[in-house]
Amino acid sequence: MYDVPNSSEIKDVLRHKDQMLCRLYTQRKRIYGRMRREKAFTFSSLSLFADQEAIEEKRPFYTKHLKNIFKEEMRIFEIWHCFSCLPEPYHTCLDQRYVQQHFSCQPFSINKAQPLTRNFIYQCDKGIELIQTLFKNKYHENFVQDGSHRLS
Predict the structure, then answer these.
(1) Domain count, the chain
(2) pLDDT tens per residue, range 71-104
(3) Could you point out which of 22, 78, 91, 139 has its C-alpha 20 to 30 Å from the C-alpha of 85?
(4) Which structural domain, as residue segments, surrounds residue 35?
C-alpha cells in the first residue's frame, strides 16, 4: 500500500510535474546507457564468461534503481490523476495557484491588485485534502482510471 502524499509533495507535483518527469527520464536514460555500454563491452571482450558474471552482479543494482524511478514516475502520475478528478472550484483554484502559478504564496497576487481571498485559500486547502482522499480511496474502491471520473 502506498503512503498518502503530504500537502507539500502534492504542491511540488502540481508546480513542477514536467521538470520532475524530465529528471526521472534523464536518470533512466543514463542507467540504460550504462547497461548498454557494459553489455557491448561484454560481447567484445575475449573473456566473455568473466564479464558476464560482472554484469550479473550489477543487474540487481540497475534493477533496483529502475524500479525506484518507475515508482516515482507512477506516484507523480497518480497525484496528477487525482488532481484531474477534482470537482470545481477546487480544480480551478489549484490549477491557478500551483500549476499556472498565477498567484504567489504571499497574501497578495503577483500583480498586487487582487488579494488572495480567504475563500480561495480555503478552496486550495480543501482541494489538497480531496487529492489526499482520492489517493487514499483509490486502493479501496473501484477507482476509474480513464480520467473521466469526478468527485461530486
Answers:
(1) 1
(2) 999 999 999 999 998 988 899 889 988 888 765 5
(3) 22
(4) 7-137
